[in-house]
Amino acid sequence: MGRLSRRAFALAALSTVALPGDVGAAPARRPRAAEEMRGVWLATVTNRDWPSRPGLSADQQRAELLAHLDTAARRGLNTVILQVRPTADALWPSPYEPWSQYLTGTQGRDPGWDPLGTAVAEAHARGLALHAWFNPLRVAVHADPGRLAASHPARRHPEWVVPYGGKLHYDPGLPEVRAFVQDAMMDAVARYPVDAVHFDDYFYPYPVAGQTFDDDASYDAHGGAFPSRAAWRRDNIDRLVRDTAARIERIRPGTRFGISPFGVWRNASTDPLGSDTRALQSYDDVYADTRKWVRENWIDYICPQLYWHIGNSAADYAELVPWWAEVARGTGTQLYVGEALYKAGDPAQPAPWQDPAELSRHLTYARDHPQVRGHVYFAAREMAADPHGAMARVIADHYGQPATPPR
User: Fold this and answer.
1) What are the Glycosyl hydrolase-like domain coordinates in residue numbering (predicted)?
2) Count of the separate structural domains present in the chain
3) 277: Cβ–Cβ under 8 A, 6 or more apart, which residues?
4) Are 156 and 101 in contact (CB under 8 A)?
5) CB 49 within 8 A of CB 40
6) Quick check: 258 and 196 in contact, CB under 8 A?
7) Which of 42, 126, 151, 229 could bridge to 73 as Cys pair (CB 3.0-4.6 Å)?
């Protein structure tokens, strides 16, 4: 059964029965194949990678964007994951949400060009795949609704919004919220031949000590059938993921759907199916049952953020790669590994990150696990500058031959 039909079958069945933990024999170790994910995240939130600052002219913004695409191609990469909806806004002319403030400095102001449309065309012209990266539920990185554009849906529907941790979030417990954010994202899928839709790791917000995410009203209205609020919250995120996958399939068949979650599903001390780690747990802390999404084939790829060095005492890269490989084994979901390029050479990071060869060792280690189909690097700013030479080492050691993205 092919990738698309397999995912479509899984979505249609809406099965909740997990696949067996041991599905057949392990496949033979793959060669250095011509098909491998070599990706980079290009973040726009708070102007992290691009544009370098808000308020640049359209020509300046475009030139910077093309420079990032050129860098990716020059480094031997084949995929750029561009953040096009960083904070319930848009980097294309959306009828649902305002233009992003990270373009002009003012939310809702037309930048005078179409960044997403340009990015798709120019990436493809360079032989790069373009994955459209959406943050589905973050409204703002501040807590003041009055700072949002007057036309912003969060101002028209304040009941959709929960302030938490100094930020504004949509409440995923409301069916109308889940429907709206899908409408907003699917507008881009319908307009542009993006190669994939990509979610990051933000679902329910990461825990903040001493604060409570106030979803009492939505839980009272919709949570009665569940044994706990936590189970209800996980179901809300499951629905968002499953429904998004189904809508992508309907709107633009062949467009892939991938998610890059926090790298730990659950710790083994909590759940025997978990990893030998002592870290935050996406299942319990942001209500993202990432293992289920893989085993149920709801998504085409998963790219866990394994942002730890080999030998880390709390979350060891060398523990998590085989754990995720086993999760993906026998499923229709491809596994890529998210790599912390931004940590390389950072004096605030532990000693292993001061060695320019640390990232290269990650790829060497992962090659012993045939389920790992490639790597994605955070992020584009460090890809361009590479002050520590870590990316140059990866290229020299592993990217001697070109590769096309997995399909």
Assistant:
1) 36-349
2) 1
3) 264, 267, 268, 314, 315, 316, 319, 320
4) no
5) no
6) yes
7) 126
